[in-house]
Amino acid sequence: MKATGAYEAVFTGERRAALDRVLERYPTKRAALLPALWLVQEARGWIADEAMSEVAQLLSLTAAYVKGVVTFYTMYRQHPVGRHFIQVCTTSPCGVCGAEDVVRAVLEHTGCGDLGATSRDGRFTVIEVECLGACGFATPVLIDDDFIESVTPETVPALLRRYA
Amino acid sequence: MGFPHKPHDKETVVLSRYFGDPEAKTYDGWVKRGGYEALTKALSMQPAAVTEEVKESGLRGRGGAGFPCGFKWTFMPKEKKGPHYLCCNADESEPGTFKDREIMRWTPHALIEGCAIAMYAIQAEVCYIYIRGEFTEPIRIVQAALDEAYAKGVLGPNAMGSGKPLDMYIHRGAGAYICGEETALMNSIEGRRGNPRIKPPFPAQSGVFGKPTTINNVETLAAVPHIINRGAAWYKGLCLGNPKSTGTKLFSVCGNVRRPGNYEVTMGFPLGELINELCGGMPNGRTLKACIPGGSSVPILTKEETERCILDYEGCVASGTMLGSGGVIVFDDRADMVYQIMRLTKFYAHESCAQCTQCREGTAWTVRILERILAGEGAPPDLDLLLDLADNMTGKTICVLSDSCAAPVVSGIKKFREEFDAYISGAKAPALART
Questions:
Q1: Does residue B121 surpass a pLDDT of 90?
Q2: ipTM given for this complex
Q3: Would an 8 Å CB–CB cutoff place B344 in contact with chain A?
Q4: Which architecture characterizes domain B337-425 according to CATH?
Q5: Which residues of B, range 158-217, sit inside 8 Å of A by Cβ?
Q6: pTM summary value
């Protein structure tokens, strides 16, 4: 896919320099793909097809190859999301500790209604995720880059107030 | 110290000694606690002698497979013809397991030191620490510790004044359980989809970037400095059961227990004691129903089996399960085992990389059958179908993800069959809406 006129390149200035530093860590350009995709997502909040093309060009890969990698990893977002992205763990160990009630509370208090949907004010998007690796601190919730342990339905409203 | 609880008298605190101690996260704090003495000592030894010490200690891989660590290091070529790599597996994603996370967030320098010693032993100049993408806090903490280690000359072109380079980088995962499988992990470092590779070739011959590579788990590497400091004999002496299982092990206990968290005990410790004493048993007067002792991929134990199970590699096998990663998931008497098993299989269906048919189709099909049973639409042959499917998913694929999905199904049907039958006969009301 060709970059359209409206597309603004991600890798300019400091971000290009950051990618150059990443490239020094690996013997191949391809190996910089996951870090490059993280840089895109940090800059734009998600990874558009045009950004995949830009990354492909920089790393001498095809856009189709990059898309194949993006679609393999669940944390790379292929669509825009709300200002704050909320991931609630619902795998078995958290499930037996009431994770599904936490999901319901988060959906209610964000106004998202459905998993994957963005609230009308554009503030939140909520998804369920498989095991966040903090099972002893059920229920863990990842809001943007903040990892919050031991969330209960009761603590949800105060927690959400921290995210404007 | 201790986090989130003070250590219990019956714990043997080695790796977790500084959990909860914020000063231990810094380079100065770590050095004050004896940090980097083991690395200095290792650098004064021959690489083969370091490997021999670790081999002699009996340390086995803490990621799940339990492969002898020092023995693994001996597979690396003795004569170096090109780059060698170390990959640290910090992709901790096995449901029930959260020990590597605590090592990284409280004692990042213990991991760096362990990696540096391993690199010296296998003659690697570059180490990639593969941390799962969701671990935002451990990533920040390990990166800060790496920056300090570079600034202090522990790492860099002249590491510890040895005249040799040691470089260590974090490679952040992006949400894929399968990347904890060592060959998938290497593909992910190379910028590929995380599909496991067919072995052979084994990583020590052709690993990341086609070069000789060793992959070790965080907890394994964090134990190495202690072995170098205190000697193989000391480590080997930490053993309550079978002499083939030595040292301490972190057990992450979660689910329906009063005090969930990480507990470090000597190999051979009784599982029942861990749950009932150290973790305080079930809350609210509940009783134990079932337990998965080694992370979600190992067979389920009944209450009676749990109370008899010994926590070492051989003891778990004798109880019909595996020690795995040491993620202990506890279910109390309220647990609907059919629902819980369905939920576990859903995890594997979600995480299948989809390259092998038995796994791609088998995991999803297993979920559909279990959901059908839970919706009251199951038929008696469904259990045989599940077992037949599980048989076709075991030992037939490139990696063991599909075996891991089959394990709770087979053990669950065997041990909690009456719960399946109750849904199928209609004796129990459906737990899920009809499909």
A1: yes
A2: 0.96
A3: yes
A4: Up-down Bundle (1.20)
A5: 167, 169, 171-177, 188-194, 209
A6: 0.97
